[in-house]
Write a structure and sequence with these properties.
With 435 residues, the protein is mainly alpha-helical. The protein contains 20 helices and no strands. Belongs to the LanC-like protein family.
Length: 435
């Protein structure tokens, strides 16, 4: 079974591209295909409407369901690359009106899958693993509550209660030795899951729940302050994961700050000031429209990371949230520059997924469309969707172990294709900005 450290090491190899870095001196442009598409000239692509995309999505879902395991002995990976992520994908598709004929069948299958995952995490002896968002129980309970509620089942309260009870696990400052604050297993992930539940269930949190959220935010800020002081950083908040000071969305500073911005109503004035100082610090770490994977690193132009997990495609969401809150143009400008980098280097060779694949890159364009209303970004997303079906991509992209999975495989791609049909409502899966 995967444990937190084992899976994080797997992510380190996949997300950071450590294996590829070793050969970077002899392999140029190992990470992305050349973008040979002409840019937007005022018209969207024909043939990418519902009449084409809906059948393609249905066919891909059928392909996924033939691969996804339904045995409780094979539930590792949580929402990231476990069966639970497929359940979320089915829920997401069922929420789109264009799939109303498939809705009931998809939700029924989603429930079957998530029920197995819930039983699996119910039996998990490691309480820290149960509190993990993308790799453990917290995310599975959250998605179960969403699926049950969508089906009209009163039982949605059971997984919701299990999720809420996990706040006690991640409230202590150092509940994880590897780093207690990042998105996949740490406190930022718990806050992210709570945000998704607020959005999808439309429930007003009680004063008790608000206090619990507040305590977690305070723990994140105190943890960041202590680390920054201990390491003598010239900025107020910093974090590490397995000894590495990551900056990107997967394990780093950007998603931690993004979650604090999402809950800034529970922060004191001085705490808000620390968060905004840190946001501006991170903005100043930009190197030619991108961010290094870790603090202090210099980007190698021929081998840079342009992934959601590490680099501009994930960091952009922090600055989108910052812009939505205070409307300062420098934050939107930073997002736009990130989008330009993705257009140049976002046709990734690591598969179709959302963590470090083409769909994850393309979600940045849907984000920018929602921020600006500029149809150029829908066009760019369409081009990336088109590329997924080319022989060049099929022949030149890396094979994916969990081909069905949400973050590495086709389930994330399905979410992107559905959101391309409804760009005004589009959001990177389980990573809410517009709440």
């Amino acid at each position: 079974r995967f444990r937190i450290k084992t899976l994080s090491q797997k992510l380190h190899l996949i997300g950071d591209g450590v294996v590829l870095v070793v050969f970077s001196s002899v392999m140029e442009n190992t990470r992305c295909f050349a973008n040979r598409f002409s840019d937007y000239k005022g018209a969207l692509l024909p043939g990418q409407g519902a009449e084409t995309v809906v059948p393609a999505v249905i066919a891909t879902v059928d392909k996924i369901l033939k691969k996804v395991p339904l045995d409780s002995s094979d539930c590792d990976g949580g929402l990231y690359d476990g069966p639970a992520g497929v359940a979320y994908m089915l829920f997401h598709v069922s929420e789109c009106a264009l799939f109303s004929e498939q809705r009931d069948a998809y939700l029924k299958t989603a429930k079957q899958i998530i029920d197995v995952s819930v039983r699996y995490v119910d039996a998990e002896q490691d309480k820290n693993m149960r509190a993990a968002f993308l790799l453990g129980g917290a995310g599975i309970y959250a998605v179960a509550a969403m699926i049950y509620k969508s089906m009209g089942l009163a039982d949605f309260v059971k997984p919701l209660t299990k999720f809420r009870n996990l706040w006690e696990v991640c409230a202590p400052i150092s509940f994880l030795e590897c780093g207690s604050d990042e998105l996949f297993v740490g406190r930022a992930g718990y806050l992210c899951a709570a945000l998704v539940l607020k959005q999808k269930l439309a429930l007003m949190p009680s004063s008790k729940i608000k206090d619990q959220i507040k305590s977690i935010c305070h723990a994140i800020i105190e943890s960041g302050k202590q680390y920054a002081r201990r390491k003598r950083k010239p900025f107020p908040l910093m974090y590490s994961y397995y000894g590495t000071e990551y900056l990107g969305a997967a394990h780093g500073l950007s998603s931690v700050l993004q979650m604090l911005l999402c809950y800034q109503d529970v922060l004191s004035a001085s705490e808000k000031d620390l968060v905004w100082q840190s946001v501006d610090f991170l903005m100043n770490q930009e190197q030619n429209c991108n961010w290094p994977a870790e603090l202090g690193a210099m980007i190698e132009r021929e081998n840079e990371l342009v992934h959601w997990c590490h680099g501009a495609p994930g960091v952009a969401y922090l600055f989108a949230k910052a812009y939505l809150i205070n409307k300062k143009p420098q934050y939107l400008d930073t997002c736009i520059r990130s989008g330009e980098m993705v257009w140049q280097k976002g046709l990734l060779k690591k598969g179709p997924g959302i963590c470090h694949g083409v769909a994850g890159s393309a979600y940045v364009f849907l984000l920018l469309y929602r921020l600006t209303g500029n149809s150029k970004y829908i066009y760019r997303a369409q081009r990336f969707a088109e590329f997924l079906y080319t022989e060049e991509f099929k022949a030149g992209s890396c094979s994916v172990t969990s081909v069905y999975s949400l973050f590495e495989g086709l389930s994330g791609t399905v979410c992107f294709l559905v959101d391309l049909l409804q760009p005004d409502q589009s959001e990177f899966p389980l990573f809410s900005v517009f709440v």
